[in-house]
Description:
Layout: E1 7-8, E2 14-15, H1 17-77, H2 87-117, E3 125-129, H3 130-140, H4 142-148, E4 151-153, E5 162-166, H5 167-183, E6 190-198, E7 201-207, H6 231-234, H7 242-252, E8 256-261, E9 267-274
Amino acid sequence: MPPPPAITDASGHAETPRENAGADTGLMSQTTAFRRAAARARRKQALDDQKRSFLRMVSHELRTPLNAVIGFSEILSCELYGPLGAPQYKEYATLVHESGLKLLRLVNQIVEIARLEGHVTDLDLGEESLDDAVEDVILQLRGEASSRGVSIVAPEAGTLPCLRADGRGLRTILTNLLQNALTHSPQGGLVLIEARQIGGAVEIEIRDHGEGVDPADLPRLIRPFEQGGATLTRESEGAGLGLPIVDLLTRAMDGSLRLKSTVGHGFTAIVTLPDASARPSLARARP
């Protein structure tokens, strides 16, 4: 039986039916792969939307009653509408208020780390003034620093470089690092904030003069809920979420976190972020 005739295209090239079949198969494979990739992208988007919805619900349902507890206990502890009677009532109301604030901070940290680990945090990267961010955070933590007898010092305030970051994320990073430093500083201690521009990046260094930690324990401190044998995690309050949040946020903003410490010589956290002139990376580092 004679073979099927070849088909000649306009250039004079003869294509056999087998070649045509191969080309059609390749085109179908590409189309199938494209459809599968599009389906995966749709499923991922739907999952991210579900995560966002869940986190909004959890955040609202937990924070709303907590805010009521915090607000009313503050009214009672201040005796806003008159004396409560026995002094113990005022003391108990103050304890309820302080405990409510601690619990609210924990809820905020859990929601934040869930957002970051689930890749559902929308960061708005742009030029940010490090001076403004440092000033805002120091003002926010002034009361806590005063109650602990610790001073927060930024020798280069007013001349700190600008960088490329998310404004809220940058303040979250500074707040967590400064709270960590305040917690582990001795009475009358000093927390130092410094920044320097290195190439296309800005390094922010926050250093305390506390007891420090064994260098071998440093990698464990950026794991959520880590409560290992280090002084930083075992002998202090908190759930061990501050440093993990900082680590995830810096990576989400194309940066990095480094920790340095030795026992008896304090603790240093160094955050590196792109400077204001840096272009966003095409593939942002995922937490």
